[in-house]
């Protein structure tokens, strides 16, 4: 396969391939983080995760339209404002959903699967009725498009770098919040023992609501970022849901570190296999690998020891 | 929805009739045969008992047809345009006197992007509602699901999408292109005009791209003496194309030949652009991007790519100008019109022409009369139904522009004969 290429060509291709793998890794982490919080920390199987992401994407679209029409001079920075708005829009919707629906189902985790799946169908139809069934194109500011040439062949995509930077920032923020702040301590306490946490004076209902909101808000930011690389339409959220669950379950549902490790493993496997085999075959082999590992380690890669 | 539109049309109907009359004057001899201005007296001449011997929903004053598309679910993105075009055509036919003097009423059913639902709704339209014709379906999967229903209950379906061929039925009129019509002329053009010899084929992983690529590969290797340097399929909904883009960079094909659909389509072009592949320098020919798709992809992300279709919204002919104006008047200035939308618009008109040629609504007679039925006012230009129930049509190449429209760069001189079972390509 490589016989006809020179050494320098080969090395630059492998460099770009490595970079492609890193972009995929960032994308996986970004989409899985919100779910890792909700599924991992709260045990809620949120099938509507993709729809929370798409809400963020639509917010981005409308922000871009607003800037284009009213303050075109600031169009270059609209994306940052859009991401913040997306966080609050998806987070607010998440908290509303938690209050109306999820909190009645904490004792029945499997029912959350059905309920949130229904919610995802409802949200899709709402988007379709409100925003129209066609996909919308989100225009990016000029500086976010294109790539930086490193050598003749090697080029680094700017939006890839952007996604990477964003992923690192959000991961660090979430880790600090979970493991260094008082609120994070409360969340972990509720996860470990809800009754006991309540007994020592933690308002568990409030913690639940904000945790769910945080997970959904991060999903919104992810959706906002993915307008750079993917489509924005009523059903686009479905494109991400399988990969998202794959990453979270494979990593071990309750561990943020596990999510990151699993995103890394899956993305590298996928992108390397895609290069050597065809796209469909790469997917099949990746899934097969995940299934085999999960058969051997049903709890996923990383497991936190919890006294039950 | 439709009642609103009826209101808006009341105010403008006089002006529209005037306009249509004026537009039709030069083409009057052609139109006479398709009965555009048939008078009410014509209807009285043909009693309902004579034009409807099989118990269809036809009365002295009106005839009922079905519209069967997905307005919910994944496919709503694509099928919305078809529904709009069919309603426009029906509205126009009614304004100009109806079919055999009868006004068309429609019953719309939602296939909900679910193939068994399509079959169920098709049965409902044919058995309960006794519709005289159905305009509908979009994906091949939905068409395959309803085909047995149409054959069993003897209905007639007008199917608008370009598709993979390898099918022919008495009960279906295919108003889009079959694969050879869409593919061969495009490959010939890029080979001759751009000197293309090496091709990278990339598509979504299901029947239409696979069959199309098979035809493309045979043509490239056997007829053009070219080489396929890569052939890749990705699962539907795949959103990460960086690896294959690296492979494309490595193999440096003259042409990227793409049939990626749905949300993947958007991801593919955005990532090509981000990876620094400049479509004004790298030739890319696609068979899956119309104006509808560009709406989601963003014109600036795909500008420079070539698309192989039979219709573009920007076609410069009087029929199309009138069609685009009417379409936007009915559905809003911002709507775009893609290849399939135009093909869907042909359905009701071809049905009307066939019914009036047969002087009957009976499905058998309409199917028989459909052969050689022509529609001179088609926005794509003149079309005619072939005995194999596909359309004679031209193939065109358009170059995508940043504003989301295509610029026509090539069209075949003659109509291409439809060949759903191409010899040497299977």
TrEMBL record, chain A:
<feature type="transmembrane region" description="Helical">
    <location>
        <begin position="239"/>
        <end position="263"/>
    </location>
</feature>
<dbReference type="InterPro" id="IPR017779">
    <property type="entry name" value="ABC_UrtB_bac"/>
</dbReference>
<dbReference type="GO" id="GO:0005886">
    <property type="term" value="C:plasma membrane"/>
</dbReference>
<feature type="transmembrane region" description="Helical">
    <location>
        <begin position="12"/>
        <end position="40"/>
    </location>
</feature>
<keyword id="KW-1003">Cell membrane</keyword>
<keyword id="KW-0812">Transmembrane</keyword>
<keyword id="KW-0813">Transport</keyword>
<comment type="similarity">
    <text>Belongs to the binding-protein-dependent transport system permease family. LivHM subfamily.</text>
</comment>
<dbReference type="Pfam" id="PF02653">
    <property type="entry name" value="BPD_transp_2"/>
</dbReference>
<feature type="transmembrane region" description="Helical">
    <location>
        <begin position="212"/>
        <end position="233"/>
    </location>
</feature>
<dbReference type="InterPro" id="IPR052157">
    <property type="entry name" value="BCAA_transport_permease"/>
</dbReference>
<feature type="transmembrane region" description="Helical">
    <location>
        <begin position="158"/>
        <end position="179"/>
    </location>
</feature>
<feature type="transmembrane region" description="Helical">
    <location>
        <begin position="77"/>
        <end position="97"/>
    </location>
</feature>
<keyword id="KW-1133">Transmembrane helix</keyword>
<keyword id="KW-0472">Membrane</keyword>
<keyword id="KW-0029">Amino-acid transport</keyword>
<dbReference type="InterPro" id="IPR001851">
    <property type="entry name" value="ABC_transp_permease"/>
</dbReference>
<dbReference type="GO" id="GO:0022857">
    <property type="term" value="F:transmembrane transporter activity"/>
</dbReference>
<dbReference type="GO" id="GO:0006865">
    <property type="term" value="P:amino acid transport"/>
</dbReference>
<feature type="transmembrane region" description="Helical">
    <location>
        <begin position="275"/>
        <end position="296"/>
    </location>
</feature>
<protein>
    <submittedName>
        <fullName>High-affinity branched-chain amino acid transport system permease protein LivH</fullName>
    </submittedName>
</protein>
UniProtKB/TrEMBL annotation, chain B:
<dbReference type="InterPro" id="IPR028082">
    <property type="entry name" value="Peripla_BP_I"/>
</dbReference>
<protein>
    <submittedName>
        <fullName>Urea ABC transporter substrate-binding protein</fullName>
    </submittedName>
</protein>
<feature type="signal peptide">
    <location>
        <begin position="1"/>
        <end position="43"/>
    </location>
</feature>
<dbReference type="InterPro" id="IPR017777">
    <property type="entry name" value="ABC_urea-bd_UrtA"/>
</dbReference>
<dbReference type="InterPro" id="IPR006311">
    <property type="entry name" value="TAT_signal"/>
</dbReference>
<keyword id="KW-0732">Signal</keyword>
<dbReference type="Pfam" id="PF13433">
    <property type="entry name" value="Peripla_BP_5"/>
</dbReference>
């Amino acid at each position: 396969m490589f016989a006809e290429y020179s050494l320098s060509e080969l090395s630059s291709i492998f460099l770009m391939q490595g970079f492609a793998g890193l972009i995929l890794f960032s994308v996986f982490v970004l989409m899985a983080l919100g779910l890792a919080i909700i599924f991992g920390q709260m045990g809620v199987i949120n099938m509507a995760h993709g729809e929370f992401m798409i809400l963020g994407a639509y917010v981005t679209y409308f922000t871009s339209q607003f800037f284009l029409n009213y303050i075109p001079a600031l169009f270059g920075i609209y994306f940052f404002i859009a991401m913040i708005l997306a966080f609050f829009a998806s987070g607010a919707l998440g908290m509303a959903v938690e209050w109306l629906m999820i909190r009645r189902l904490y004792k029945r985790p499997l029912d959350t699967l059905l309920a949130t799946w229904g919610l995802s169908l409802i949200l899709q139809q709402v988007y379709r009725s409100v925003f129209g069934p066609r996909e919308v194109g989100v225009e990016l500011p000029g500086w976010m498009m294109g790539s930086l040439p490193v050598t003749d062949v090697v080029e680094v995509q700017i939006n890839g770098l952007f996604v990477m930077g964003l992923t690192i920032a959000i991961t660090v923020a979430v880790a600090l919040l979970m493991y260094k702040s008082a609120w994070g301590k409360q969340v972990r306490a509720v996860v470990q023992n809800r009754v006991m946490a309540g007994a020592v004076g933690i308002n568990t209902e409030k913690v639940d609501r904000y945790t769910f909101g945080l997970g959904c808000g991060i999903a919104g930011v992810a959706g906002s970022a993915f307008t750079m690389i993917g489509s924005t339409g009523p059903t686009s959220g479905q494109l991400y849901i399988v990969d998202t669950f794959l990453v979270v379950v494979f990593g071990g549902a309750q561990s943020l570190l596990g999510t990151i490790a699993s995103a890394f493993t899956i993305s590298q496997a996928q992108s390397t296999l895609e290069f050597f085999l065809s796209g469909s075959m790469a997917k099949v082999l990746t899934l097969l690998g995940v299934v085999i590992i999960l058969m051997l380690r049903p709890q996923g890669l990383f497991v936190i020891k919890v006294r039950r | 929805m439709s009642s609103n539109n009826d209101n808006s049309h009341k105010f403008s109907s006089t002006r529209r009739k005037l306009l249509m009359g004026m537009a039709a004057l030069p083409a009057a001899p052609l139109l006479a045969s398709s009965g555009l201005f048939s008078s009410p007296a014509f209807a009285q001449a043909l009693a309902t008992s004579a034009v409807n011997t099989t118990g269809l929903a036809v009365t002295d004053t009106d005839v009922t047809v079905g519209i069967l598309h997905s307005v919910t679910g994944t496919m709503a993105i694509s099928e919305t345009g078809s529904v709009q075009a069919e309603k426009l055509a029906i509205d126009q036919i009614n304004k100009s006197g109806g079919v055999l003097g009868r006004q068309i009423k429609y019953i719309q059913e939602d296939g909900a992007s679910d193939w068994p639902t399509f079959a169920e709704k098709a049965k409902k339209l044919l058995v309960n509602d006794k519709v005289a014709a159905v305009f509908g379906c979009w994906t091949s999967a939905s068409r395959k699901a309803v085909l047995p229903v149409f054959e069993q209950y003897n209905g007639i379906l007008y199917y608008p999408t370009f598709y993979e061929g390898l099918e022919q039925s008495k009960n279906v009129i295919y108003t889009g292109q079959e694969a050879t019509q869409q593919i061969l002329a495009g490959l010939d053009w890029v080979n001759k005009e751009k000197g293309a010899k090496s091709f990278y084929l990339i598509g979504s992983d299901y029947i239409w791209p696979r069959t199309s690529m098979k035809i493309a590969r045979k043509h490239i290797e056997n007829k053009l003496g070219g080489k396929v340097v890569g052939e890749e399929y990705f699962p539907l909904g795949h959103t990460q194309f960086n690896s294959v883009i690296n492979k494309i960079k490595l193999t440096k094909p003259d042409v990227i030949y793409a049939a990626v659909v749905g949300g993947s389509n958007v991801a593919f072009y955005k990532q090509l652009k981000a990876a620094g592949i400049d479509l004004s320098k790298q030739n890319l020919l696609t068979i899956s991007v119309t104006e509808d798709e560009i709406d989601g992809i963003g014109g600036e992300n795909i500008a420079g790519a070539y698309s192989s279709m039979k219709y573009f919204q920007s076609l410069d002919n009087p029929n199309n100008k009138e069609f685009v104006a009417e379409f936007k008047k009915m559905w809003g200035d911002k709507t775009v019109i893609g290849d399939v939308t135009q093909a869907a618009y042909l359905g009701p008109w071809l049905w009307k022409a066939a019914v009036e040629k047969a002087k009957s609504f009976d499905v058998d007679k309409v199917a028989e009369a459909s052969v050689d039925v022509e529609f001179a006012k088609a926005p794509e230009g003149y079309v005619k139904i072939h005995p194999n129930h596909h359309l004679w049509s031209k193939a065109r190449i358009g170059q995508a522009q940043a504003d989301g429209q295509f610029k026509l760069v090539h069209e075949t001189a003659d109509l291409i004969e439809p060949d759903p079972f191409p010899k040497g390509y299977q």
